[in-house]
Each structure stands twice: as C-alpha cells, then as structure tokens.
Amino acid sequence: FSDVENDLAEVLLTESDIHEKIAELARAIEADYDGEKLLVVGVLRGAVMVMADLARELKLPGLEMDWMAVSSYGAGTQSSGVVRILKDLDSDLEGRKVLIVEDIIDSGLTLSWLRANLESRGAASVEICALLRKPDAAKVEVDVRYVGFDIPNKFVVGYGLDFAEKYRNLRGVAVLAPHVYS
Ligand code: PRP
Ligand code: MN
Ligand code: MG
Hints:
Elements: H1 2-6, E1 8-13, H2 15-32, E2 38-44, H3 48-57, E3 64-71, E4 84-87, E5 97-105, H4 109-119, E6 125-133, E7 146-150, E8 156-157, E9 173-176, H5 178-181
Parallel strand pairs: 2-3, 2-5, 5-6, 6-7
Antiparallel strand pairs: 1-9, 3-4, 8-9
The protein binds 1-O-pyrophosphono-5-O-phosphono-alpha-D-ribofuranose, manganese (II) ion and magnesium ion.
Residues 43, 45-46, 71-73, 79, 102-110, 162 line the site of 1-O-pyrophosphono-5-O-phosphono-alpha-D-ribofuranose.
C-alpha cells in the first residue's frame, strides 16, 4: 500500500480501533435485541465492511442480513439529498425489527430518507447503527441509536468509504490528502 499511503494525510482510526468499537456496538445491540429476531440491512456499497464485521460479532440467534443500494451523491462529492434506490431489499419488512447499518452519516440526508422509507413498509421498528458520524456536516438530524465515532468534517476513506470508488479496501479510516481531489 505504499502508493496509497501518499494519498492519505492522516490515519484517523486503525484496524484495531475499529474492531474494538464494533465489539462494543455489538454488545449494546445484543442487549437491546435479546431474544428477538433482528434483520440487519446494509447500505451498499460503503457499509460492506461494517456489516461483515458487525454481523459476525453479533451473538443473536436468527440474525438475518439483507442489502439495499441507494445513491444520493451521483458523480459529485456533495450529497444532493435526492435518494434513488438502485437495489431494493429482498425481505418483507412487515412486523420486522430492522437495524440499518451504515459506514458514515455525513449530511444525514441518505439515512433520514432511508429510515422513513423502511418505516413506511410496516416494520415494527427501524433503528440505525453507523460506524462514523460527522456532526459538523449535518444538514438534518438523524436519530441514531448506535454510533461508533464522531469525526471531524474532513474527507475520509477506507473501511468501505471511497473516493471515486477507490480506497474502500483499506483496513483503517484515513483523511484523504487534498492533492488527490484538488
Ligand atoms: C456515502 C456513505 C453513506 C452516505 C452518507 O454513500 O456510504 O451511505 O454517503 O452521506 P449523507 O449522510 O450525506 O447522505 P455513497 O452515496 O457515497 O455511496 P457508496 O456507499 O456506494 O459509496
Ligand atoms: Mn453509502
Ligand atoms: Mg461513496
């Protein structure tokens, strides 16, 4: 990854920071859904890493996983607020307890739209787990039950997060060096 390192200004979270936090989040989720049948919904593509690690960490018998792909960014780096479903769930949400799993809450537009959308399908409950949140970038407040880290309003990549589809496979989360996008 030596070429990649040139593109990174600063490592924010190491692989072990992340895994420690995911274990913590999993314990909180297990306590809240003890004895319940939970459906976790990962938001493609950014949430792939969090979903894979969180789902394996969760000791909840009967856990189900489903996926949605939505797009709010188009080609730009700014969220437009217009969310399109690119791939819908395969599961029926009627009466289900649903936990949306996201990599990051930036403006909050994607998740506030998504929660309302899933609630309208008759889910018994819809909660959110996000590994990262940028409080200074919020355009709408999203009520997030489980948050990993609040981070500064900088462009971050890694652990699922991309810039122009790259860097998703990094094990940690890092701030992208300005020379990459300017
Ligand atoms: C990113 C990120 C969140 C969303 C957060 O996804 O993974 O899903 O933006 O932004 P918001 O809070 O401002 O709405 P993106 O649309 O880039 O798609 P991706 O997951 O495929 O990278
Ligand atoms: Mn995403
Ligand atoms: Mg993206």
